[in-house]
Amino acid sequence: MVKAANFRGTTPGPPSGARILVVGGGYVGMYTALRLQRRLKQELAQGGVEIVVVTPDPYMTYQPFLPEAAAGSISPRHVVVPLRRMLDKCKIVIGEAKAVDHAKRKATVATLATLEEGTGPVEITYDELVLAPGSISRTLPIPGLADYAIGFKTVEEAIGLRNHVIEQMDIASSTRDPAIRDAALTFVFVGGGYAGVEALAELEDMARYAARYYHNIKPADLKFILVEASNRILPEVGETMGKYAIRELRSRNIDVRLETRLDSCEDRVAVLSDGTRCRTRTVVWTAGVKPAPLLAATDLPLNERGRIVCTAQLTVAGVDHAWAAGDAAAVPDVTAEPGKECAPNAQHAVRQTKVLAENITASLRGGPLKEYAHKYVGSVASLGLHKGVAHIYGRKLKGYPAWLMHRVYHLSRVPTFNRKARVLAEWTLSGLFKREIVSLGSLEHPRAEFELAAGGKRPGHGPDRAPHHGPQRGPEPGFPPGPKPGPKPGPKPDPEPRSDGDPQSGSRGN
Length: 510
What we know:
By secondary structure, the protein is an alpha/beta fold. 30% of the residues lie in helices and 20% in strands. The protein has helices at 27-39, 41-46, 66-71, 83-86, 112-117, 145-148, 155-174, 178-184, 194-210, 239-251, 346-365, 400-413, 417-432, 448-453; strands spanning 18-23, 49-55, 59-61, 80-82, 91-101, 106-111, 122-125, 128-131, 135-137, 149-150, 186-190, 223-227, 255-257, 262-264, 269-272, 277-279, 282-285, 289-291, 308-309, 322-324, 329-330, 378-382, 388-392, 395-398. The strands form seven sheets. The chain has a seven-stranded mixed beta sheet.
């Protein structure tokens, strides 16, 4: 391991004073750093403070727009916010924090450069720590899940899923095998929270529209299945609106299975707990999240769910100079009865960053800290084009008014005027012109044609193709080639696969 105790001196400029290390570039990381660079403008200019942001990606993804990006209503590049442009007074380190030793005030970080150099991770020292690594998909030991399913938390997954759905329609249109055709036109979504319902609704809308351009595929041939372990979907919008959402989806021939679990998806066969078996080439897993693995590699206090124990001031309980918010933090909800915690969702995360930045600034300047308090006032959800549900300030909306509220709210929340203008322009154009139904799956393998010209073997098309040979950070979105033996059946799946929070869920509220 390379020691980098004086990491702050590796870049030109005046020597720094207090270093604030922000781990994570999502909602909490970006907004906290943005507000800190505004509040500490004078200190940053004089070199008295330095803000370092460690993040695996050079952008923040506005996750509520992922379903529309997957459906083609918004360009993928407009649902991400470049961190270097937003945080021009901060130092951005593209890498992954592997461990944090707060007792020694240092974080172990693997950067792109350390991977190329083969020298091992570096250690970045700090004075104040902000932990905001977010969450990852919460999976279960279901046979075949790791081999054949795809998540829906990143823009790469959203675009990969869009390409995959269109390519499955291409396969169904050209195959002579009825079994392959049925499997290609069967799409299984697991999880009835915001991520699963909105992704399914938008992609079903897109696929149904695209079917008109296939001579041998009708909308009725498409089979979408929503699998939810509990007895309701979209619990955040209330029971009445949740039931309306089920009726709306079922009216579009979407098969909604409540109190049902996915038991297996080995060999491209989805086996449900109610005994249903169906061949499918598409399994989308959106059944909850869990804290990032980094938290287990710290010396900070964690609760039984693996989240950092925090105070209402967003400090880490019993620890000095450490702060946390968002999905990774268990923050007391001072507006509810004692013992309740704020839900780990984006609605709380974005609001917590304001208090977090104020308290860090006050701490550096010797001022008093304030508590985070926010009363949940409602949520909105899209069910496809011109369809939605909302429960705001006790008022229930459905259909077009709810869908319009959904768009207006998220347009107001997406960062930067630049992104707002681009998204609004794309919505306007999509209302004037027809949908784009082109699959660009070949973008995932940009060297395929050159490799073929150089004597290599042409990969297949879509997510079933063989992996490319260029550098990549992890497995490509989609599905691996050919059937693989899944893991041996593990413990019986949790009867409630969705976790207590969804990072995409609360962001629909106000």
